[in-house]
Amino acid sequence: MQRDSLSRRSVLSLAGLSLASAGVATGAQTSYHSQSAPGATDDEHVTRESFQIMEGTEKETTVYVTDAEADGPTVFVIGGVHGNETAGYIAAEEIAEWTIDAGTLVTLPRADVVAIDRGTRVDDDGIDLNRQFPEGSEPQTELAEAIWDLVVNLDPAVIVDLHESRGIYAGNPVDGVGQAIFHANRDEDRTAADSAIEYVNDNYIDVSERAFQTGYFSGPDSEPTGLLVHKAARELGSEAFLVETLSTENELEKRVTWHSAIVERLVEDELFPNEEPNNGHEPEEPIEEEPDEPDEPPADEDDDESGDDVPDDHTDPVAEIRSDPSSATERTLEPEQTITLDATCSEAPDGELVSYEWSIKNDGTFNESGKTVDVTVSASGDHRVLLRVTDDAGASETTEVTLTAA
Ligand SMILES: [Zn+2]
């Protein structure tokens, strides 16, 4: 969807509109600062500006506008709607500093500064900001009204709201949803969301339970209602997305990276029409990794216990157990009888065996080592014995025998 871009002049008039509408509608002050944001550079074919909404109130917060020389659509990114969803507002602050190739990027990183200061989902009146945007009627708080005025004036082609959840599929469609992109129920929104999760899952996610999924916002008649993105999709026709990362099981830095990468993909046609986005964390760049917890993709699905770095064409070793007496595994033994198990006939076709480990106590732990082991069957019943052999490439294979005592 292509729309007229906001030129720099229209951004200025936008601020004027915000001032007028916020002043009239809510009594809150909105002011506009035409100078560049501190630290921003204007030599990259973008201009950067910022202004406040809810100025002079405890909810005063900053809106950042990045305008490219090249015309293009307007994108609005919002974070901090829920104060305890940290990666969303940290990512939005990074996104506010992006250099874009075309169009206009408007960012409101810290939507509810009171909730953020409290570190809670809701503000000090217990108000959940993302339930204050009912479809077909006015927003229900001054802050929601100020945000909605901004969105209406922007008329964004795309709106993205960055959140976090604390559980996977805990029941509520918006909370406890794990890692997900929720989108408006239209083909182009679904296509963009599917493409974004495919990219992120392929390039960043190494545990299948953490893979991002997509889903629709709730329908007009179902809970939850009052979502900002829902109202923007239905009343303004914006492509609308709500992104959730799982905060309970992933490091903050990773979650911020995932948010940034997702937003890049969702808005690449609008803000990066000519080349690959280059603001977020390209997979080619080193992603911060724990030295002892490398972000390797999972090893191949074999149920052997090969190490992660065994070459694909490596032939795994063969584990084999012989017993003395040789018939010990085929007949019932006397209680307290001792059997010698021998692993010397195991083989390593592509190298040599470097370890022989045994589990002889029916508990699955390998606490004996050596080419042979003596096992005393001390009680009646089955005694399961495991042998694991490992070769010098780190590939291993496990086999087992069962000794049965009377
Ligand atoms: Zn949230």
Automatic annotation (TrEMBL):
Entry keyword set: Hydrolase, Metal-binding, Zinc
Keyword tRNA processing recorded: no
Residue span, PKD domain: 336-406
Region (Disordered): 268-344
Comp. bias intervals (Polar residues): 324-343
Pfam families: AstE_AspA_cat (PF24827), PKD_4 (PF18911)
Molecular function GO labels: hydrolase activity, acting on ester bonds; metal ion binding
Xref: SUPFAM superfamilies: PKD domain, Zn-dependent exopeptidases
Cofactor(s) needed: Zn(2+)
Basic and acidic residues composition bias: residue spans: 312-323
Chain intervals with Acidic residues compositional bias: 285-311
Highest taxon, organism lineage: Archaea
Gene3D superfamilies the record matches: Immunoglobulins (2.60.40.10), Zn peptidases (3.40.630.10)
Name under which the protein is recorded: Succinylglutamate desuccinylase/aspartoacylase family protein / PKD domain protein
Origin species: Natrialba magadii (strain ATCC 43099 / DSM 3394 / CCM 3739 / CIP 104546 / IAM 13178 / JCM 8861 / NBRC 102185 / NCIMB 2190 / MS3) (Natronobacterium magadii)
